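U., I forgot to send this yesterday:
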Amino acid sequence: LMVNFLTSLPPHIVILGSEIKMYHKRFLFGGTADLPLYNTLTNKIIIADYKSNKDVHKNYKGQTLLMPFNYLLDTPLNKYQLQLSFYQLLLEQVPGVEVEARKVIWFTDNGYTLYDCQDYSKELLKELNETLNVTIVLISHDIGTIGKYASRLIYLDKTLVFDGTFDEFCHSTDMTEYFGYFSQHQICWRH
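Result:
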């Protein structure tokens, strides 16, 4: 089955290795990425993990995961999604490395199913910030998404354009003038 999956990869997706071990000294967290891939068109990483459990959706009586992810059902697939988000955080500590996708390859007797995984890395960063009092500096072009997680927003465009909270950004007449009403509305209301 693994051979079928590997031979189905498009030519621009290159296998970087298998069972790549990662570790973060400060957070004392590590893991093994089963199948890191490289997209030569985007120059980004795809983290893939292969699994062979009987049922990746199995849940016992509606149980949920522990805080801060208690809104997720306690299923193997949700745990794998969190695991891959941790790996994304580890990989993106390396300058120039960006992860474009997280995939779970679920092998069954009948073949395999490929799952696109949610990116929980920003929720994990928020949890580190709040529970361990760790300052997180996150650079992004997606102000709307960052506004959901950041306690402070600094917007630069060759010079300092804005410094404050996301709420202040959304209600700033200067930012309305800078971005235009409709653009600011889309950013603030995440359209």
